[in-house]
Structure formats: C-alpha cells, structure tokens
C-alpha cells in the first residue's frame, strides 16, 4: 500500500473526528512534509479534506475513484486481484496489462483506470472511455490449457459481466456472440481479450472488460453504428463502481476456478442461457457473403453453432450475427 | 542492401579479376575509406579477400554465412522474404522476429542467424544452436484467419521442412505430432511457433524453425532425452545452408498461399502422409495419465485424432505420443 493509500485509510477510519498531521506522521513513520504532500495530492484527485488549525485533518467527501487499496480490501479472492494496479489515466488497460505480463506479473493481476486515452474495442475500433464514470479493467491470466481453448475465456468473462449486471444493477443482460453484452438490445459492455502463446503453451491471456456504468447520453459519441447504453441510462440510478468491480472480480474468480476444474461445459451452458439469439433465426454476415440459419449453441472451441435450413451444422468462427424477424429480411 | 552487401556483390560478379578501390568507390558513391572499412569487416566475417597493389581487390573464398542479399537474390517469392534480417549472432530469431512484428514489420519478414545464444525449443527448453552449421530462422506472418486456426500453421511449416529435407537432401523425413521432424527416428528439426492475437484478430504469428544441417556428433549436448541427428550425420555430406533456406522459403510461400486460398485440408493431408505414427498403435502420455489408441489423423484445429480400442475418437491437444510395438508396452 502506498503512503497515500495509508493516509486515506486513516482518514476513512477516523471520519467522525480530526486527526493531526503529527499523529499521521507518527503512525505511518513519514515526515510531516510527506503527510502534507499526500494530502495535497489527494485534494488534487478530488478528495475534500478539511484542515483545522491545532486539530488536524478530516475527510469530508471522496470522489468516485477506483483505488488499489479499496479494490483489494474485502475482495476475498485467492487468485484474482492479489495485485491491483489502479491508474487515474492510461492509454489502455489492456496495453498496461500486456506490459506487466511481459515483465512477469503474477496471474490474477488486475489493471483498472478511471480514464483511457486510447481505449480500444473490437478490430482496433475506438472504445469511448470518459473519466470516472465507467469500468475499464484488464485481468491477466496464465492458464495451463491448450492454445485452441483460449478463446473459451472470452465466454467466461461475458458470463461474469452479465451476471454482475444482474446481481448489482438488477438488469436483464444478454450476451451477443462473440464478445458483447447487451441490455434491452443496446450494447452496455464489450470484451477484448488478447493472447500471447507458443505452440504448446499459453504465455498469458488478458481479459479486457469495458462496462458503461454511469455514462450520460451526451458522453456517447454521436456516430455509433450500433445502439449503446449504460447502467445509469437503463435504471436511472448511478452504480457504485467499486462494488460493481469487486462483484465482477469475485464472479470471475469463481468461474475461472470452475473452468480449470471442469472445463468449458458449465460456462458454455451459462453462456447459451444468456445468449440473445439462441434458438432464433439469424443472418451471419461474413466477408464472403451471408448465411441464414438457427443458432443452436456454442462449439467447444467457441465457434457459434448454426443450423442451416437443410439441417447441416455450420461452425461460425467470424462474422456479424443479426436476428432475422421477417421473411422479408431474407431477400 | 547495405554497402557491405553491395561490395560483396561486386566482388562476386568480378571474381575472375581484380576490382580497384577507386572503382568501387565510384560505383557505389562511397568514400575510399568506407570501402576499406567494409573490406575489413568482410575479412572479420571470414571472407578471404586478396588486395594487390595498383590492381585492387579480389574475392578468393567466402565463408558459409547467411547474408540477407544472398537470401533475397533469386528467391523469387512474392510474400516471404521481401524483408530479410540476417544476423551473425542473436539471442533467438523468434525473439528478434517478435520485436520486429511489434514494431510493425511486414508479413513475410524473415530473420535468420548464424548462431543463437539463447535458442529455445518446446516448453522453454534449450535448443542447441552452434555457429554456422545449422538453420535458425523465424518467419513473420499476419494471416487474416480466426485465432482458433492459427495452430494449423505449425503443420504447414512441418510439411515445408519435411519436403525441403526430401528435395534438397534426399532424406526420407517424418513428422511427429505436434512439432518435430524426424529422420530415421531421430529429431532433425523442431518448430516453435508463437502467436499474438486478440478475440477476433491475429496480430501476428511467428514460425520458428530450427534444422540441424551440418552439425557434427560432438556438437550435440551430451544429455538429450531423445535421439537427435543432422543432415550431415545422416547423409555424410554437408548441405549448402543458403540453398536449403531458399528452397524452404519457396515451399513455405507456396503452401501458405494454398492455405489462405483452400484452407487446412491440403496441408492436413500432406501432414498425415508424412506422419510417423499414422494408423499405428500409440501411447499418449499426458499429465493426468496415459491413453492408448490408433492415430487416425489430424482434427481441423490441429488436435491429434486418436481412435481408442472401444472405437471412440479422442481429440488430443497436448501430450507425448510414442508408438507401441508390443502388447507388453501396454502394461
């Protein structure tokens, strides 16, 4: 824990009275000047700290910032979040996590940021990442599974996000193959997983997760080629980002342990339960043309199982899947 | 082409007579001092260059060095080897290729080295890489295929190595699942492919190829847990490394184009034709125990298709495969 985090902890546990600079200096074994420097830094982050002559400091209000010490405290996970890196701003949490992974960071390391200056979505597209309202996080895993099974982790993280949206926000979430989470047909979360592997060994997988939590209508970019939403827009209430993140990480820990123990089947079944197009007629647009059929589930390696009209099963590895509602859509 | 390569070209095309420093300086538009510096550098690399007063320079003998200009010249590939990086020594060609890939190198970039100081084999094991006798190379690809199909490229490079051993060295090569090439039951080549990908997009794949060409018995490490060999040991003749490499790269280019056009099937069929255990009884040792069955081929995603005694098909994604010759082996 940094001394900034330790001072914040002292303020929080003493929020009903003043605590003197001298006492802080004594407790944390740092100089009075260092205490003052950290108080200044906390104020710059948006903390309201009252300073009263001869009494000391008192925390009046805290901004909605994700701090490593807050995330770690009470998380109660064995693997996920043993190391948390919380940044006020970064280019992209995936890029930070990749760097940490290459430098040997332990499995379960979590990177979160209040703002991303270069957040990325699918296929290199931009992911809008305004400050302090949403969740941008990346989790580093080092599973000892065959390379071909790594894409299964995308579905694991999709299920964990959907379940967290239900638990914490009481929203009915759907998953859209391969890596979106929808609420009322609009995108509320996107997943971007990265992998570094050699023939027989995965070096690391990074689960990148973006969830639109408290984003306002005016914070969405004007031109989006899909409907998007946030928890705030759907429920009319803002959500505690820390509680959301901790619930999500606990969910991820549980499903990851189950995945390593029992394989993909339980995750696949949950994912199919959340799937927005299961047993529905869809059109799959691929570079080479379109396919029509009924979504019947997920293949073991993460392909979408599509039953064509003539009964044949196609394994879809790439493409855009859209529900087909009327015969006319098929012309 | 560097000025060193250009001078070497001049020496080679004028090997029957002397060429003056003044003429080289004029032709290449570099100073006389620069000419002298490059001649000195070439001598340090092992080139025998005669210098005769008032006549100039003449190339007497060239060492068996892999030079970028030699590799590029007469390669006649459209994709593979448009950029060649030839190093006298490096840590590992895969590590160099990975760095180049991250810096945006084009598809088809080839990295070769005369010596690797930290050559790696499967699962982080050391790959013995003495100077100037073998082939150590890495090819950068950026295929637009689903992540799940990337392991298929291992089998593509295995087929290209086996075919090159047949064509250039007249050896009967076999492939051993997942990534070895054998001659007379001993390992002559190993493949180490690396991948960097996100959910729907491969950033790059690096095909790492090590082939024991002119390695002598005493150059093999004393303790190897498998029999190993080289072309020289098998045929009694040394092989021209440049010709071997160029033939291999042309073969790779042809099969890669076919793979992008027609998919995995033709590669899979060739690989099965070279497979050392096809239609044979094997034991597969996995962390959790052993399986017995008959190898019946490759699955679309690169798993080994094993038919168990009760007729069921197992997809093997990891493990050591050994032929079983007697009933007694099964105890």
List the helices and strands and how they pair.
2 copies of one chain form a homodimer.
Chain A (H helix, E strand, L loop, with lengths): L2 H11 L7 H8 L3 H13 L3 E5 L3 E6 L6 H5 L11 E7 L2 H10 L7 E7 L18 E7 L10 H18 L3 E4 L3 E4 L2 E13 L2 E11 L19 H5 L5 H22 L2 H10 L6 E6 L2 E10 L5 E5 L4 E4 L3 E4 L8
Parallel strand pairs in A: 3-4
Antiparallel strand pairs in A: 1-2, 4-5, 5-9, 6-7, 7-8, 8-9, 10-11, 10-14, 11-12, 12-13
Helix pairs in contact in A: 1-3, 2-3, 6-8, 6-9
Structural write-up:
The structure is a homodimer of 331-residue chains. In chain A, the strands form 3 sheets. Chain A has a 7-stranded mixed beta sheet with strand order 3-4-5-9-8-7-6, sandwiched between helices. Chain A has a 5-stranded antiparallel beta sheet with strand order 13-12-11-10-14. In chain A, strands 1-2 form a two-stranded antiparallel sheet. In chain A, β3 (84-90), α5 and β4 form a beta-alpha-beta unit. Chain A folds into 3 domains: 3-61, Winged helix-like DNA-binding domain superfamily/Winged helix DNA-binding domain (Arc Repressor Mutant, subunit A); 68-274, Bira Bifunctional Protein, Domain 2 (BirA Bifunctional Protein, domain 2); 281-330, SH3 type barrels (Roll). Chain A is built from 9 helices and 14 strands. The longest helix of chain A is centred in the C-terminal third of the chain and has 22 residues, at 241-262. Chain A has helices spanning 3-13, 21-28, 32-44, 68-72, 93-102, 152-169, 231-235, 241-262, 265-274, and strands at residues 48-52, 56-61, 84-90, 110-116, 135-141, 173-176, 180-183, 186-198, 201-211, 281-286, 289-298, 304-308, 313-316, 320-323. Helix content of chain A is 31%, strand content 28%. Chain A has 331 residues and is α+β, with helices and mostly antiparallel strands. At the A-B interface, β8 of A face β8 of B. β8 of chain A pairs antiparallel with β8 of chain B, so a sheet runs across the interface.
């Amino acid at each position: 824990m940094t001394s900034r985090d330790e001072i914040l902890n002292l303020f929080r546990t003493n929020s009903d009275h003043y605590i003197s600079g001298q006492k802080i200096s004594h407790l944390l074994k740092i100089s009075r000047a260092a205490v003052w420097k950290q108080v200044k830094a906390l104020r710059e982050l948006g903390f309201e700290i009252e300073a009263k002559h001869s009494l000391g400091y008192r925390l009046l209000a805290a901004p909605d910032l994700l701090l490593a010490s807050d995330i770690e405290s009470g998380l109660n996970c064995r693997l996920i979040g043993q190391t948390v890196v919380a940044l006020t701003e970064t280019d992209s949490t995936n890029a930070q996590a990749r760097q940490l992974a290459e430098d040997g960071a332990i499995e379960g390391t979590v990177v979160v940021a209040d703002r991303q200056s270069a957040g990325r979505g699918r296929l290199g597209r931009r992911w809008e990442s305004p400050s302090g309202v949403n969740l941008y996080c990346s989790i580093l895993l080092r599973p000892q599974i065959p390379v071909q099974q790594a894409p299964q982790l995308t579905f694991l993280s999709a299920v964990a996000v959907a379940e967290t949206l239900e638990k914490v926000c009481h929203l009915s979430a759907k998953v859209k193959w391969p890596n979106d989470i929808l609420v009322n047909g609009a995108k509320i979360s996107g997943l971007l997983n990265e992998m570094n592997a050699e023939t027989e060994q995965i070096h690391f997988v990074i689960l990148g997760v973006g969830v639109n939590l408290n984003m306002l209508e005016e914070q969405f970019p004007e031109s989006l080629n899909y409907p998007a939403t946030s928890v705030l827009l759907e429920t009319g209430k803002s959500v505690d980002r820390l509680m959301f993140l901790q619930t999500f990480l606990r969910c991820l820990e549980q499903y990851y342990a189950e995945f390593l123990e029992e394989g993909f089947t339980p995750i696949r079944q949950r994912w199919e339960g959340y799937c927005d197009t299961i047993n529905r007629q869809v059109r799959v647009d691929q570079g080479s043309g379109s396919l029509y059929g009924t979504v019947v589930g997920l293949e073991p390696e993460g392909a979408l199982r599509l039953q064509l009209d003539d009964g044949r099963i196609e394994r879809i590895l790439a493409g855009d899947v859209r529900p087909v509602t009327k015969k006319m859509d098929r012309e």
